[in-house]
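Run log, item B.
One chain of 378 residues. Sequence copied directly from the ordering sheet:
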Amino acid sequence: MASRRDYYEVLGVERDAEDEDIKRAYRKLAMQHHPDRNVGDPEAEEKFKEAAEAYEVLRDGDKRRRYDRYGHAGLEGLNVPHFNNAQSVFDLFGDIFGDLFGQSRQRGPMAGRDLEIVLDIDLIAAARGTIKNITIPREEVCADCSGDGCERGTSPTICRRCNGHGVVVQSQGFFRMQQTCRACGGRGAIITDPCPTCQGRGRVVARRTLEVSIPPGVDTGTRVRMPGEGEAGQLGAPRGDLFCLIRVAEHALFQRDGIHLVCQVPITFSKAALGGDIEVPTLGGSLMHGLKAGIQTGEVVRIVGQGMPSLRGGKRGDLLVQVIVETPRHLTKRQEELFRELAEIDQKNVSPERKSFLEKLRGFFAAEAPEDGRQPSV
């Protein structure tokens, strides 16, 4: 998963920049990477959305303080919007820079914002899939005014500045810029008697409990989308979506390598030399697996099909068992006797590998011998 850039770096401002400097820097970038100026350029659109995300955080005092202290991790749970397309940027910040060249974008009630939260799960849940209940704060339609923002018994009036269109067009030289009407905020109507519950917004913040179904095979960075579970839109507009960013905790025994799992299993000298069955942990419990005689420390044994399921379906991953030969630290008297006996046998019956090593060692010292003929001490 690609890491996000520093927000101050994105906007090209210092960390002590004033609010007006941040707004000015964002407007400059938004105009530079505006989709109407970069038709068919996906890189420009990504920069357009990246700048909007940076501005959304740095313009908000609380979010900016959290970001300055903890970085991106400090923003978790603060309902930072996810700009999944250019239109979502226009919906939130369209009044800052307007539309270029007089091209009209889809207007009308503003759709609800997307939300993103972080869900922590363990490796077992990631392998099997799970269902989690979460409680999130989000904007809901105000029940007292049914979302129109007007006090009961009243209704909005047509905005005189934009004549109910929600936008105004201004000419600047060769360019015609269409901007959201500041008088009505793009609604096309003015609320003269706002609802006392929502202060005319038509929406209120409420806490909602949702059930999230997490499929088997997810990994850190996987985003589970819940359509229509974001914030409420304006009257007549759809809700946004909720994105659950998965974070899988580290496991005491297993390390993850894509769909494969890696673990280390200690074995004794005798097991390494003679071979035989060893007990191997898996996500579903332990199993017995046979080792060949003479296995060396660090060698990896592959157990097919005991890894993680694939999120996209298909073949399950494998379990990669790294064998670690343990050297005993404390010997009983009988063990010491046996090891000494084995050491004597090793001296008399040198293995081909050790014999080759000793020959190379003697050749090395022979080449390094001084001219006076004296042999170096080993």
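Observations after the first pass:
- Residues 98-106 have pLDDT under 50 and may be disordered.
- Residues 184 and 190 are 6 Å apart (CA to CA).
Flagged for discussion on Thursday.
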